[in-house]
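Summary for the steering committee. The consortium agreed at its last meeting that each partner would contribute one worked example illustrating the joint modelling workflow. Our contribution is presented below. We chose a case with several input lines so that the handling of multiple components could be demonstrated. No manual editing was applied between input and output; the record is shown as generated.
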Amino acid sequence: MTVAGVGEFGLIDRVTARLTYGKSCLLGPGDDAAVVAAPDRRVVASTDVLVEGRHFRRDWSTARDVGHRAAAANLADIAAMGATPTALLVALCMPADLDTAWAEELADGLGAEAALVGASVVGGDMSASPTLTIAVTALGDLADRPPVVRSGARPGDVVALAGRTGWAAAGYTVLSRGFRTPRLLVEAFRRPEVPYPAGPEAAGLGATAMIDVSDGLLADLGHVAKASRVAVDLRRDAFEVPRQMRDAAQALGVDPYSWILTGGDDHALAATFPPAVALPERWRPIGRVTEGAGVTVDGVPYAGPVGWDHFRRAE
Amino acid sequence: MTVAGVGEFGLIDRVTARLTYGKSCLLGPGDDAAVVAAPDRRVVASTDVLVEGRHFRRDWSTARDVGHRAAAANLADIAAMGATPTALLVALCMPADLDTAWAEELADGLGAEAALVGASVVGGDMSASPTLTIAVTALGDLADRPPVVRSGARPGDVVALAGRTGWAAAGYTVLSRGFRTPRLLVEAFRRPEVPYPAGPEAAGLGATAMIDVSDGLLADLGHVAKASRVAVDLRRDAFEVPRQMRDAAQALGVDPYSWILTGGDDHALAATFPPAVALPERWRPIGRVTEGAGVTVDGVPYAGPVGWDHFRRAE
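What follows is the complete predicted structure of the assembly.
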């Protein structure tokens, strides 16, 4: 059955019937708007859009995978402020001949990823469109802490990373060369593993700046350096190249550090901490904040492109 | 200059430089997420998406018009809960060859419409896409009142309308027949005039149910009737056909009541009130809630389609 066949309201009924609601959802789908708890008297809000052919391919990822990734991209932005996600709203634009099962499984993926952090899909909109497009807005709560912004890094701070980088980029390269294995890398591209609790944890530890690594580690730390008017220097030896990644890099003729340092889409969290902070195991030191500008690796500018531009990236 | 020419970050810089921020915006664009005031400890949230060729046409509306309408569609949903809008987030998908001026003027329209209610554009995302698409999320505050939902209408309640209906549909018909006048109707399609303050006002007066009229009056009151398990009967003589609309209807061979009763996109607010409530002038009584199901006009079911389905509507 196509989405045009069941119609807008029929599809909304089918999708909302599959959703479950977290405790922050005070009023879910079915009215003009949802109502979400904001105990902190502030709400953190972020929007990310995924466009078919640019951010995902239906022959590379299942609908459920795309749902997980669309949710993860947004939930990670909330975590990167030091907040806990509470809700997602989803605008879904679909070709009229799309199978309803695709939309339903997308909703399953969105809901399952949100449930990892106690959040839920509380509302949205649907429209026909020639281009399959998923725009997600995530909301979150700061629990009475100030948001951790990009502009607070200070010379002397430690740069630390929670989560992994390079895995999704490696999976993307594998898929784009026509392979389906190594499975571990391909799965990392399909469904990022985001260290959500590390966000509020970093805020509690006194992180001075934090960012979701979505454009690539060097590019995103570049945003932090620019906003904070500081320089960041990373230590290459802080990054171990996992065996599967090393083997794939060798087979594909790629420098694995290009994945680790410039690949996006794993949604790791990078943060800066005052040097006195005792970092828990989840936060791995990878470099230092210094006076100056820009990002270097072992004191040297990185040779090569450092991240994606979503208007220039090849289709 | 095209959006691909200035790139994602260049365009974000250009657009955010044009925005101004309301008092609810505690942290605006430029970080992983925005922070918005939610003094009520709850946030009202709604998402609406506009797709080129389906919800707007670039040869019918300027970018600024589209911005006004995209914002209005969302802000009206917030008002229809009895809330005051605080913020918008915007996901904008654009063909790479789109002129940056279009995106900048869109932002001007979004910002200007939001400013009518003291709200502002606090964040968003941009991507290239073959299909020009604007997904907007609006947030709002309930000021310690319960949300006015669709399910609270009771037999005996008065049905009342704030704002106008049929104007946007008339303008749409005029444009789709290849005309550019009457200007008043065409302008109503391009930029709806939404009675935003009527939403919180109705909540304060004790409205039992409320809805934003976006699908058409009969269709939307049908949603209220269904959710409330009641019937709604409208009085045709409660609707005066304005002269410009009557003249256009005659020239185009259309029943003007089909515009008034089934046309969407004016974003009027329809609400039900206990009969004892003294309605201010802005809220015009148009019918009654009774026992039963469905919506009738002068006791008789309406002959003809009552609203849009966004998957079936002709391109």
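The mean pLDDT of chain A is 94. DSSP finds nine helices and 13 strands in chain A.
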